TrEMBL record, chains A, B:
This is N5-carboxyaminoimidazole ribonucleotide synthase. InterPro entries: ATP-grasp, ATP-grasp_carboxylate-amine, ATP_grasp_subdomain_1, PreATP-grasp_dom_sf, PurK, PurK_C, PurT/PurK_preATP-grasp, Rudment_hybrid_motif. Gene3D superfamilies: 3.40.50.20, ATP-grasp fold, A domain, ATP-grasp fold, B domain. GO terms for molecular function: 5-(carboxyamino)imidazole ribonucleotide synthase activity. Pfam families: ATP-grasp, PurK_C, RS_preATP-grasp-like. Keywords: ATP-binding, Ligase, Nucleotide-binding, Purine biosynthesis. Pathway: Purine metabolism; IMP biosynthesis via de novo pathway; 5-amino-1-(5-phospho-D-ribosyl)imidazole-4-carboxylate from 5-amino-1-(5-phospho-D-ribosyl)imidazole (N5-CAIR route): step 1/2. ATP binds at K110, K148, E179, K180, F181, V182, E187, N266, E267. It catalyses: 5-amino-1-(5-phospho-beta-D-ribosyl)imidazole + hydrogencarbonate + ATP = 5-carboxyamino-1-(5-phospho-D-ribosyl)imidazole + ADP + phosphate + 2 H(+). Homodimer. SUPFAM superfamilies: Glutathione synthetase ATP-binding domain-like, PreATP-grasp domain, Rudiment single hybrid motif. Transmembrane segments: none annotated.
């Protein structure tokens, strides 16, 4: 290993997006002695008060992106919906942007992402580009199916399930593809990191439990309650998927475990991921530190799990919009093993991610029980009830 | 438990001192949704870029301290050498300052601290106020002895060891006390937290290993390598000491384990403590979160150790002064279980605390081995060599 010497700050890190992921990334960077410049449309975004500098700009302004990239030794991002063309131009001039904008471009286009993975021999649900909005196209693909917009989807937006030909009124009249509806046993996720030398590490497999009624993530359980061979296979597939993308950073790989015990890739995020928040408390190296190590050419850290953990998102309660009020915090914090994260968003809104809680406990069942209790007592509301 | 509702920010925390302790406290506060105002003489102090606001002032300016206290829901401090008189005045007017300035006043005066502990029946080395600088006073107390300035000592300053009457030229001509030189088997430390309800928790006992030659802390090992009864006794004494002070917050209690198996209190710090840095990685609740919970009237968190750990301070190398250069970082980070903290001080100087490293490893001996290796390879220097 070459005896490279780091000055202070270690490096200047540019982060596109100052939401909770940017905030957590910035906090870890500051712990380690980096200098952080965040770019976000709001000067009051969660990352603002924990970064060294903030550039106020939307994610498409080429001049502001250029300013960020030029000021930074390495630029990264916490969201996918950004100006890839502008970043490619800077990347081609030799600026350090990781994961590369070319990788981001593949991921932004969900259809291309699927094609790339399929071509690499990775298991994905059967899919096809929507060439016509005529019922015959959908019928010949076969019901039930999921239609997904190729671009711009996020947190369930841009996705519809079409059960049969009678639901054809739900179809999205947009550039999209259809995917076979997968009979899912469990949804899993694996955080994978890859550095510039091509070293790859994976974190433990996480089980994503959904609230079927509300169609939102209920809790994340780690380690996933699956057999050893499923766990190994999930990691193997996630690692191969990230290797296929040939880029650098931390990636969140979402997987389906089907009822017939197959693992299929759902989608990949080229950044720290909600399913990896538990790593802050429960792993030796958090996903945020790992991302920094990867993009800064440092050795990757240990992904070892120190304790079983359960993570729940704290979403804005339905019916409330405005300055957040937190109910039940004292009671929640009296439960052993509870870590509370509040992102610092100025306004709550129904289902908005306002914070999260990680519960660590040696006993996985007890951790789940505690997380369920926290979910019951800890509520993000606001003064005024709406609607 | 009353259903108290928290707004955002949860509370405004004022922190006197923006060094590494203030920085780590601020980072945890920001994670949890607090608003942080730091007060420090330097606008470029470690805490500055991770706090919401910085008030630039020395620690004795009553107007600036008042500004901080008035702006904050609760004010705390990361150092002891501050204007207690000004804080007492504000405290008496009903402002929330924790630990209370009265507690701080006792601790600032090391002689009074010892007296208070002794009166509470706690074990301390034999001590006596220096009433005369005449040799006969010291002789009648008995050699070997340690003379300590009652106020202003820090990191070994204001402390001299007088072995016999021939070393009398070393004595400090200042307000001071003498203490019997203790034949130390090991130095131990325990972090204790107490909240407003009077709940008290203690962390695991830490073993402080000193480099005898340089007379500086070499490494901190947790759990301490002592028998169970010593461990229990150390915790019991530390808890009783903190209860004696009747205040609120996190306290670092430094202890001597004597060669004849007695535990004596050395001194107490009314704040998060160097010996508790390992809690960030190795405990469920870090000492910084615990301090926030305590001073904000929240339930105390679990002090459970998730893994054995060893912490080393990263001190500026002798012979270097100036902008820091970090040597060996890549090699150090390639060791499994290493967490790197760099405080962001603009200048290094010999023995200045520039950062720290925590190593976690299931196997304590291996953790010690790894820490020793990190110490060898990771060096804080600067461009220009001095002296």
């Amino acid at each position: 290993m070459d005896k490279k010497v780091f000055g202070y700050p270690l490096k200047k890190i540019g982060i596109i997006g100052g939401g909770q992921l940017g905030k957590m990334l910035s906090q870890k960077a500051k712990q380690m002695g980096f200098y952080v410049i965040s770019l976000d449309p709001s000067a009051e975004c969660p990352a603002a008060s924990v970064s060294d500098e903030i550039i106020v700009s939307d994610f498409y302004n080429p001049e502001k992106l250029k300013e960020l990239v030029k000021k930074s030794d390495v630029t990264t991002y916490e969201i996918e919906h950004i100006n890839t063309a502008a970043l490619k131009e800077l990347y081609n001039k030799g600026y350090n942007i990781l994961p590369s904008p070319y990788c981001l471009e593949i991921i932004q286009d969900k259809l291309r992402q699927k094609q790339v993975l399929k071509e690499a021999g990775l298991p994905v649900p059967k899919f096809e580009k929507v060439e016509s909005f005529d019922i015959s196209f959908f019928e010949s693909f076969g019901f039930p199916l999921v239609q997904k917009a190729t671009k711009g989807g996020y947190d369930g937006r841009g996705v519809v399930v079409i059960k049969d030909s009678r639901s054809m009124d739900k179809i999205l009249k947009t550039e999209s593809y259809v995917e076979k509806f997968v009979d899912v046993e469990k949804e899993l996720a694996v955080i994978v990191a890859r550095n510039q030398k091509g070293d790859v590490v994976s974190y433990p497999v996480v089980e994503m439990v959904f609230d079927e009624a509300a169609n939102i993530l209920d809790m994340l359980i780690v380690p996933a309650r699956v057999e050893k061979d499923i766990e190994d296979e999930a990691k193997k597939i996630a690692i191969k998927a990230v290797e296929t993308l040939q880029s650098v950073g931390v990636f969140g790989v979402e997987l389906f475990l089907t009822k017939d015990r197959k693992i299929l890739i759902n989608e990949i995020a080229p950044r720290p991921h909600n399913s990896g928040h538990y790593t802050i408390e429960a792993c030796i190296t958090s996903q945020f530190e790992q991302h920094l190590r990867a993009i800064c050419g440092l050795p990757l850290g240990s992904t070892k799990l120190l304790s079983p953990a359960v993570m729940i998102n704290l979403l804005g309660e339905e019916g409330y919009r405005g300055t957040p009020l937190i109910e039940g915090l004292e009671e929640a914090l009296s439960i052993e093993g509870v870590s509370f994260h509040f992102y610092g968003k100025k306004l709550t809104a129904p289902f908005r991610k306002m914070g999260h809680v990680t519960v660590v406990d040696n006993d996985q069942e007890r951790a789940i029980e505690k997380a369920r209790k926290v979910k019951e007592i800890l509520k993000i509301k606001s003064e005024v009830k709406i609607g």
